[in-house]
Design a protein that fits this description.
The chain has about 240 residues and is mostly helical. It has one domain. About 75% of the residues lie in helices and about 0% in strands. The protein is built from 8 helices and no strands. Helix 2 runs antiparallel to helix 6 and helix 5 packs antiparallel against helix 6. The longest helix is centred in the middle third of the chain and has 37 residues.
């Protein structure tokens, strides 16, 4: 039986990749939401939005906005399926793919096992993205149902309805963002086809870009408005 050899740099790179992805996801989405983040800022704006819904007689605009959000999730779910079809096709033609990729400057001279491992990692990433996008789509649909069930009395005040509807919208957005995050990390995996060290560098760069956008971007400073804190929010 032939000995299976995987370079140490590939093993370290994969461990680094998984650790950063899981760690950043926990920090951003699983831990207590932090006050100064895009997620918290958008939740405040969603809360204000739902307060305005109760004051409007005609809510067609709100239904249209939710429909557009759902279409975005649906588009990415469909695109992810196409990417998965391409990856599975490439996995079935690994020998030809290796020959083609070796013609690309800086591409590594990996073995068949290495190429298949890298493709399988990409497949897992986009399967994860597909499930996130479809779950986000379902939650946007639930939010639309809640908007349809909003009190009809003019100037009605229902803080419980506002809280629940804003939170389900934020939860849908969280899963949609996790699907997008998988795309970013998928781009980082492309550096793995060069070597494991480039893979680690690309993964670190992806996390750095995501962190800057979530916690220090101009968009965050623009979106931050006084409003209710998210459940369990911390500074």
């Amino acid at each position: 039986m032939p000995e299976i050899k995987i370079p140490l740099s590939d093993v370290i790179g994969l461990i680094w990749f998984v650790s950063l992805w899981v760690g950043y996801t926990w920090y951003t989405d699983r831990g207590k939401p932090r006050e100064h983040s895009l997620r918290a800022a958008m939740h405040k704006n969603r809360y204000r939005w739902m307060q305005q819904v109760l004051r409007r007689d005609n809510r067609m605009t709100d239904a249209h906005i939710l429909g557009q959000l759902g279409q975005g999730a649906s588009f990415f779910a469909s695109t992810t399926l196409l990417i998965l079809v391409g990856l599975f096709t490439l996995l079935g033609a690994t020998d030809e793919a290796i020959v083609a990729l070796r013609q690309i400057p800086l591409a590594g001279k990996g073995t068949l096992l290495q190429w298949e491992l890298k493709l399988l990692v990409l497949i897992v990433i986009f399967v994860h993205a597909f499930f996130k996008f479809t779950w986000g789509l379902r939650q946007f649909n639930y939010c639309a149902v809640l908007v349809g069930a909003a009190p009809v009395e003019k100037n009605a005040k229902d803080d419980e309805w506002v809280r629940r509807t804003a939170w389900i919208s934020t939860s849908a957005s969280k899963d949609f963002n996790q699907g997008l995050r998988a795309y970013y990390f998928g781009l980082g995996v492309l550096a793995w086809f060069v070597n494991g060290w480039a893979f680690m560098a690309a993964t670190t760069l992806v996390v750095g870009v995501l962190y800057w956008r979530e916690y220090h971007s101009e968009a965050l400073r623009t979106l931050e408005l006084p409003g209710p804190e998210m459940p369990g929010q911390r500074k």
